[in-house]
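task queued by scheduler; priority normal; single chain, no ligands, no partner chains; default sampling; output format set to structure tokens
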Amino acid sequence: KDFDSEGEYLEITGITRDQAGDYECLANNDVSSPDTRRVHITVNYPPAVMEIKSPGMVLGKGGLLRCEALAVPAAAFEWYKGDKKLASGRQGIQIKNFSTRSILTVTNITEDHYGNYTCVAVNKLGTSSASHFLHMPSTEHYWITGSAEVILSWWCLVMALSCLVSTY
């Protein structure tokens, strides 16, 4: 987008974060050739948590929760389970923070790990948070294991054989 200014300053009122980037200033007169300078504009804004999700957590397995937030300057992340702040290294939990995301990893999921998790993103301009409730998977529909799996397999085999016999 081109901006015209007759003075030595360019004022952009109501600037938004998508207007951040490189700008070029071109000075031109009748005496000499034009002079060009580049300047990078950074627009600071408070965090906005864009997403918090988990692919699911199964008892006895590992799992993770991922939180993504946009902010300038970059946000610092905190995790809570219920109203308790979580710390890396406790209860099999590891927390790794990056510039736009935080990943909470659980090495061996127990029933105590299920519940409401909140990701909080903070910078000097504000705070944003989002929550995700981790439910214990239902063994009735998706997570059948052990002897129940063997019984289900036998039942499917019997049904398949019954269908074959009835067609002859």
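post-processing summary
- Confidence is low (pLDDT under 50) at residues 140-144, 150-168.
- The longest strand covers residues 63-72.
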